[in-house]
Design goal:
Layout (H helix, E strand, L loop, with lengths): L10 H6 L18 E3 L2 E3 L6 E7 L6 H14 L3 E6 L2 H4 L8 E4 L2 E4 H8 L3 H14 L2 E6 L2 H9 L5 E3 L7 H9 L4 E4 L5 H11 L4 E6 L14 H9 L3 E5 L5 H8 L4 E5 L17 H18 L8 H10 L5
Parallel strand pairs: 3-4, 3-12, 4-7, 8-9, 9-10, 10-11, 11-12
Antiparallel strand pairs: 1-2, 5-6
Length: 321
């Protein structure tokens, strides 16, 4: 994949980007600094930041949301993520009155979207539960009022969903919070990502490589984009996966993914659009377990003789002239 030039950061933008001097994407070859999200460092040399994407898999039921948080905590995730929308803004006018069959009967699409949203009291319960579980929670705001809503709850970070990469009003609102930002890049060109990074800056940015096919076939994973994005922007790069199974997410870690986000569910057969591409509790536990094994196995890249090799080295090695 060719790397093309795109943004040129202004002096002010460069200062807010952490003084890295990034001016031409594709030319950054310095050391990538970790980003601080709450009490976690995300970046090279740090434990992979594993996010359980609850999204809308709670089906508007706070009990299910709390169970999914417990599932993520048991598996060893550092964070869970939700989605926050203002339906009147996010639902196109021509879609609002369309009927939709739901587990709660037939209702308009706008009514359905309201039925799926959590309010302030719900999120206060979510925040309290996250604290009790010792994990972080945050959400993808889909509109500016949702950014304000989440800021009022003092989330540790904001996530830009792939669908929002070109929503400049939203990007500006998120950038103005000064919080760390996770930017998903599904269904985006490099030029579109360039424009988003121009607004967000790079000082507190983690980019997530993603392909927005649900579920995603292996041939669309394109994992070699992970090192490309890191070279281009000089920021930690992770992976947001929508595939079935674990292999692709684990391969992303071997390619340097600093964070891994996967949708989670209590049962893939539950009603809803995202459950089929989600991990059930057992799969999530295996994912986190295997990520930690891979982290250890990758090592530091320095060739050496390890303690376990000393005895066979002495017993088997022959040196000849």
């Amino acid at each position: 994949m060719a790397e093309t030039t795109g943004i040129a950061l202004s002096d002010d933008r460069a200062r807010r980007a952490g003084g890295q001097g990034l001016s031409i994407p594709g030319q950054y070859r310095g050391e990538v600094s970790p980003v601080t999200i709450g009490n976690h460092l995300v970046g090279p040399g740090c434990p992979v930041y594993v996010i359980g994407e609850i999204g809308i898999n709670h089906n508007g039921d706070l009990d299910i949301a709390l169970q999914l948080m417990e599932t993520a905590a048991r598996a060893g995730c550092q964070a869970v993520k939700f989605q926050k929308r203002t339906p009147e803004i996010c639902v196109p006018p021509d879609q609002r009155d369309k009927p939709r069959s739901t587990p709660w009967g037939v209702m308009t699409y706008l009514e359905y979207k309201h039925r799926m949203e959590f309010g302030r009291h719900d999120y206060q319960q979510i925040a309290k539960h996250a604290g009790n579980l010792g994990m972080q929670w945050f959400a993808s705001p889909w509109d500016v009022p949702s950014v304000e809503f989440l800021e009022d709850l003092d989330v540790v970070t904001h996530k830009i969903a792939s669908s929002s990469v070109t929503d400049r009003e939203l990007l500006r609102a998120v950038a103005a919070t000064g919080k760390p930002v996770l930017l998903s890049t599904g269904m985006s060109t490099l030029e579109e990502v360039d424009a988003a990074v121009e607004i967000l800056g790079t000082g507190k940015l983690v980019i997530l490589h993603a392909t927005s096919t649900y579920p995603m076939p292996p041939e669309e994973a394109n994992l070699r984009t992970i090192p490309l994005l890191q070279r281009r922007y000089g920021v930690p790069v992770g992976y947001s996966g929508h595939e079935r199974g674990l292999q692709i997410s684990l391969a992303a870690v071997t390619l340097g993914a600093a964070a891994v986000e996967r949708h989670i569910t209590l049962d893939r057969t539950m009603w809803g659009s995202d459950h089929a591409a989600s991990l059930e509790p057992g799969g999530l536990e295996h994912l986190v377990r295997d990520i930690r094994v891979i982290e250890e196995a990758l090592g530091d890249g320095v060739k050496r003789v390890f303690p376990g090799e000393l005895e066979p080295r002495q017993r088997l090695r022959r040196t000849t002239a």
